[in-house]
Amino acid sequence: MTLPSTYADRNCSLARTLEVVGERWTLLIVRDAFFGVRRFGDFATRLKIPRAVLTSRLKTLVQEGVLSRDGEASGGVEYRLTAKGIELWPVVRALMNWGDAHYSPTGAKRAFRHERDGGPLDHEGRCEDCGLVVPVPEILHEPGPGFEPAPGSGRHPVVEAISAPRRLLEPIVTSPARGR
Fold this sequence. Notes:
Strand order of the largest sheet: 3-4-5
Order of helices and strands: HHHHEEHHEEHE
Largest sheet: 3 strands, antiparallel
Strand content: 5-15%
Oligomer: single chain
């Protein structure tokens, strides 16, 4: 039996969710938005995603209220996670944990800490030092023991910023992009 091309008419929350975040590249865009990427050109550079595909995925994420598309006085456009988008963090974190457990023999690619006390976060997002479930804006991310820069990633400012310890959602500031 052939699967339908869309699940929008299905009475299943998972199927409906996959309509929004289930296409190739979409969760990587969301992940990078958590890491502070905001500009079209920076997503394109970081992910090496075809521009037409990126345009389509960003449009869907904006239409669904996962990202907002905000213009600036300088003429640049930035994409920011909305409250609805930030609610995806446990899903993104769980998928990263699963990938680390099954595909990263040298350890986690990213380590997460509580900004307030520096305590490491467990797989549920709870600080191992103070016991609190840490809200997304108070999470620090840094390279973990299994981190390796992507081959050919070069010394691009976005790649360097994501590779350095920083807070989730903290915007990566690069030179203004033209266009989108």
